[in-house]
Specification:
The protein is α/β, with parallel strands linked by helices. It has two domains: 110 residues, DNA Methylase, Chain A, domain 2, CATH 3.90.120.10; 216 residues, Rossmann fold (3-Layer(aba) Sandwich). Strands 5, 6, 7, 8, 9, 10, 11 and 12 form an eight-stranded mixed sheet that branches. Helix 9 links the parallel strand 9 and strand 10.
């Protein structure tokens, strides 16, 4: 049985909405009597039209990439051909996760693990850009030793594992996250290949000792990568990232970079980070990276342009020690329209190819590791 491929039964009114949706249609395309109350208020009664409706149901178009996958799509994304919401496994396909990776935890937890991840094809393209630069600048080693921070369910980690340039890859030795379910997911995938640590980065006073003790490597890492939690920077949040304690986790990531002083680092976040507090926080982050001795290349990248079947945008920071040079961002390989040199965006239909029929459950299921 394919893990995490369980469909939920919907209530009567919700099922009516689902049944009425055609390909690509949204809540506003339904008969008004089927509208959600908050949607009706927003469209008909709210004089300010601020905040928008909080229910954005859409039937996915199999001929296009999906909208952005988050942890909240599971009562919004309707399957292209079946009258149900997408499963965790289907959402994982949209993120590029391999089917052999099973997500551990409650249904809500597995949904959040998928939604919080970086699309794996995007991560792979980013790391291959790093590897190409490293190979061309004298890194004549079998692999770059990697440290993953804020690892979650492993979107960046699996992208790093898949990346390769002329025989040079990334050998992640150690991952760190405080989310126990996500750590169990990564342990189930990695087995004994990588040390997956469940802990709080803020509790680790000595990053170098942490690395040496738990990676079994005396040398410093060649690359540190991760995505500090971004809820406080997202458009859906209150955008108080410079004050919210979650916003301070960017500083924790950079503390590790400062102490470990790797040749390269990769940090990702939501694209809206550049707009928080009028751009002040973004400039502070870039200035801090510069002060640590790194040239930083930064831009917003669209996951669909790198082979992910979704229109998710992420802000990518590529850091390279100034004594080495400046890292280039990867060039897009996929386009909405095919050109002579580019491939067409991967679609939802392509992503869902080969999946077996989903099983139905109306209960909150939990996937557990055998040792739990």
């Amino acid at each position: 049985m394919l893990a995490n491929h369980i469909a939920r039964n919907a209530g009567h009114l919700v099922q009516q909405r689902i049944d009425h949706l055609d390909i690509g249609q949204k809540m506003q395309d339904l008969p008004e009597e089927l509208w959600h109350e908050s949607f009706r208020y927003y469209v008909k009664e709210d004089p300010n039209r601020q905040g928008g409706p909080n229910l954005r149901m859409i039937r996915l178009d199999p001929s296009k990439p999906s909208p952005t996958v988050t942890g909240f799509i599971f009562n919004k994304f309707v399957h292209p051909f079946e009258n149900r919401f997408v499963t965790v496994r289907e959402a994982a396909r949209l993120q590029g996760f391999p089917d052999k990776l099973a997500f551990f935890g409650t249904l809500t937890s597995t949904q959040q693990q998928v939604g919080n991840a970086v699309p794996i094809p995007l991560a792979k393209a980013i790391f291959e850009s790093v590897l190409k630069f490293a190979r061309q600048h004298g890194f004549n080693v079998p692999s770059l030793k990697g440290l993953s921070l804020f690892s979650g369910a492993g979107g960046m980690d699996i992208g790093a594992e898949q990346a390769n340039f002329e025989g040079l890859g990334i050998d992640t030795k150690l991952t760190l996250d405080k989310w126990a379910d996500a750590c169990n997911t990564l342990r189930g995938y990695y087995g004994s290949r990588v040390n997956v640590v469940n802990g709080d980065i803020s509790d680790l006073e000595d990053p170098l000792q942490f690395w040496r003790n738990l990676s079994s490597v005396t040398d410093r890492p060649d690359i540190v990568y991760g995505g500090p939690p971004c809820q406080s920077f997202s458009q859906a949040g209150k955008q108080k990232g410079h004050l919210d304690e979650r916003g301070q986790l960017v500083s924790e990531f950079l503390r590790f970079v400062q102490v470990l002083n790797p040749p390269f680092f990769v940090m990702e976040n939501v694209s809206n980070l550049k707009a928080v507090n009028g751009g002040v926080l973004y400039r502070q982050i870039v200035d801090q990276m510069d002060a640590l001795g790194y040239n930083v290349t930064v831009d917003v990248l669209l996951a669909a342009d790198f082979g992910a079947p979704q229109m998710r945008r992420r802000l990518i920071f590529l850091g390279c020690r100034k004594d080495i040079g400046s890292l280039p961002l990867p060039a897009p390989e996929y386009r909405e329209e095919i050109t002579l040199f580019d491939k067409s965006h991967i679609t939802v239909g392509q992503a869902f190819e080969g999946l077996p029929a989903a099983k139905y459950s109306n209960s909150g299921h939990r996937v557990q590791r055998s040792e739990d």
